[in-house]
Design a protein that fits this description.
- The complex is a heterodimer of chains A (about 300) and B (about 280).
- Chain A has about 300 residues and is mostly helical.
- Chain A has two domains: about 1-45, no CATH class; about 70-304, MetI-like (MetI-like fold, Orthogonal Bundle).
- Chain A has helices spanning about 1-15, 20-25, 25-45, 65-70, 75-105, 115-125, 130-140, 145-150, 170-195, 200-205, 210-225, 225-240, 245-250, 260-270, 275-300, and strands at about 50, 60.
- In chain A, strands 1-2 form a two-stranded antiparallel ribbon.
- In chain A, helix 12 packs antiparallel against helix 15.
- The longest helix of chain A has about 35 residues, at about 75-105.
- Chain A is globular.
- With about 280 residues, chain B is an all-alpha fold.
- Chain B has a single domain, classed as Orthogonal Bundle (MetI-like fold).
- In chain B, helix 4 (about 70-100) runs antiparallel to helix 11.
- In chain B, about 45% of the residues are buried.
- The chains are: A mainly alpha (about 300), B mainly alpha (about 280).
- The interface between A and B is large, with 106 and 101 residues.
Chain lengths: ~300, ~280
């Protein structure tokens, strides 16, 4: 009796205002179309046009013209190569540093774990504009802290090196700063993953005479496989499309040694106003990501 | 006996690693803060010395007096808070409806929005610039508030939906039985129960908006409209190597994020890790 009344009332009030219930979706849907869907479609269309903001009357449909021009441009080819080096280098070292720091914080000897976890996350929370300023200062030739430190511990010839301005060191230097800024995200997610591995697995292994190294290989690594996949996929995406870090540290220099696709795109769009050409580069970024990690991305937990 | 000393060595090893980790992460911030308090002549000549001959607030005075740091600060607050309000108003009802009202087709919409989390900001930058220009919104704070929605919407939607998912649907059904409309249930049951989660979502949206550089650098060209992140980069270009002033400005830019983060860090970290660990 009671149950049937409830069902009736529920379905009654729910069915009565079907249209009204969809009303809740209106705000997010309108904003989503306005700032995401429409601009996205617009930029795909734009990539098939010759659109130059300084010559507004010269708009012209050119089919794949922008893409052909792009793939024939040595600057673009170099930017793809740099983007790949930057992304792979960053993600590999971020993972290693992230895993190492997660293992340290996960140690049973550590007290105040939450406090240290919060401190480690700081580089990730602070604006990139601040981080890049700090590191430009720390990595300055002669008076910069890093150079002074290197000189003090026995490498005086490194005192005058301009890490971010030297064609040999600029790419490793931007990767270093990017790793420093991004690894904390790996630390906290891997730490959460480590906490989910049942401790009896380790006990059983140690009773069976497994060494710490064997436990690490056969229990820890398989245990964090899922988390690792998610954060690596996310960071491949975030690093490949990242504009701020390199723009703020080197603007793509010296001599385009750190020019990546996003900074090249920005230069084309907002220094030269070649909007169609720049849009084609943006679409290219998206297509590369969709082909390489698209499937892995849609498999991540948030889609379930 | 042997075992105990092994334990001790392991403990010492772990703590040495921890100290190295904390120095690696924290020292650059400490150095920034100390430099902002150093007398100008000691910044370039002080070498590795941590403690200067005396501390001074001169650089902080300078960046507010001769720079526009106060204006940048106010603009950052206005833009970040407006972004939070807009995201909250747009996302919360949708997240509630998709989570609890079992609408047909809502799963598809949710997936579409999530797919846009992968969208490169630089790709949206170009069409947004052209569109905002058409509507005369370039060089206004509206340009920033709207463009920040491109990254706050997917993120806040994902988070707040998971908080509404966590509320047992029986509570809503009971409210309907008692004669609540869907809106009444949203206001009286949904919002109060999801409040802690929605707070975290808002804090996170605030940090994202506060930290943006790319959109602000592209859409704003009047100095009096600049936010802190672009403001300190502009100052770097015009003030050059006055590192005392630069580090003071950077400290001011960092402080609000730091305070917000330290207050809410436990919940922020839980929110961030929840999604990844489930998979």
């Amino acid at each position: 009796m009671n149950k049937s009344r409830r069902t009736q009332a529920t379905s009654g009030s729910l069915a009565g205002s079907a249209l009204g219930r969809y009303g809740y979706l209106v705000p997010i849907f309108v904003l989503f179309i306005l700032v995401e869907l429409y601009p996205f479609v617009y930029s795909v269309v734009l990539s098939f046009w010759n659109k130059h903001l300084l010559h507004p009357n010269a708009d012209q449909f050119i089919g794949l013209g922008n893409y052909i021009k792009m793939l024939q441009s040595p600057h673009f080819i170099r930017a793809i190569r740099n983007s790949t080096v930057f992304t792979v280098g960053s993600v590999v070292f971020e993972y290693l540093v992230g895993l190492g720091s997660a293992l340290i914080l996960n140690s049973r000897h550590i007290k105040f774990r939450n406090l240290f976890r919060a401190i480690v996350l700081l580089p990730w929370v602070v604006p990139i504009a601040v981080n890049s300023l700090i590191w430009k200062f720390m990595l300055s030739p002669n008076f910069g802290f890093i150079n002074q430190l290197l000189a003090a511990i026995g490498f005086p010839h490194l005192l005058t090196v301009n890490w971010l301005g030297d064609i040999r060191y600029a790419m490793p230097a931007v990767i270093f700063v990017n790793v420093w800024r991004s690894f904390p995200f790996y630390t906290i997610t891997l730490l959460a993953g480590l906490a989910q591995i049942p401790s009896d697995l380790y006990e059983a292994a140690s009773i069976d005479g497994a060494s710490k190294w064997q436990s690490f290989i056969h229990i820890t690594l398989p245990g964090i496989r899922g988390v690792s996949q998610v954060i690596v996929v996310l960071h491949i995406i975030w690093t490949f499309v990242n504009f701020d870090v390199i723009y703020l540290l080197t603007k793509g220099g010296p001599l385009r040694m750190t020019e990546v696709v996003p900074t090249l795109l920005y230069r084309e769009a907002f220094d030269f106003f070649n909007m169609g050409y720049a849009a084609a580069m943006g679409v290219f970024l998206l297509v590369v990501l969709a082909i390489t990690v698209g499937r892995a991305y849609t498999k991540t937990s948030s889609f379930q | 006996m042997v075992r105990a000393s092994n334990e001790t060595w392991e403990k010492i090893g772990v703590y040495i690693c921890l100290i190295i980790l904390l120095l690696f992460v924290g020292f650059p911030f400490v150095w920034m803060f100390i430099t902002s308090l150093k007398p100008s002549n000691e910044i370039l000549t002080g070498g590795l010395r941590l403690i200067p001959s005396h501390f001074t607030l001169q650089h902080y005075y300078d960046v507010f007096k001769y720079g526009n740091l106060g204006t940048y600060f106010r603009n950052s607050v206005v833009v970040a808070l407006s972004t939070v309000v807009l995201s909250f108003l747009a996302v919360t009802p949708g997240a509630y409806a998709i989570s609890q009202l079992k609408l047909r087709g809502s799963a598809g919409l949710a997936r579409l929005i999530l797919l846009f989390q992968m969208m490169p900001g630089v790709l949206l930058l170009i069409p947004l610039y052209i569109l905002l220009k058409q509507y005369n919104l370039i060089n206004t704070h509206w340009a920033l508030i709207l463009s920040y929605s491109t990254f706050t919407i997917p993120f806040c939607f994902l988070l707040s939906k998971s908080y509404f998912d966590g509320i047992p649907s029986e509570l809503f059904e009971a409210a309907f039985v008692d004669g609540c409309t869907t809106f009444g249930a949203f206001v009286r049951v949904g919002l109060p129960l999801a409040a802690p989660g929605l707070m975290v979502t808002s804090v996170y949206a605030f940090i994202l908006a506060w930290n943006d550089f790319m959109f602000a650098n592209t859409f704003i060209n009047s100095d009096h409209l600049r936010t802190l992140t672009t403001g300190i980069v502009t100052m770097q270009n015009s003030w050059g190597v006055q590192w005392g002033a630069m580090t003071a400005a950077a400290t001011v830019t960092t402080l609000p994020v730091l305070i917000v983060f330290l207050i809410a860090n436990k919940y922020i970290i839980e929110g961030l890790t929840a999604g990844a660990v489930k998979g």
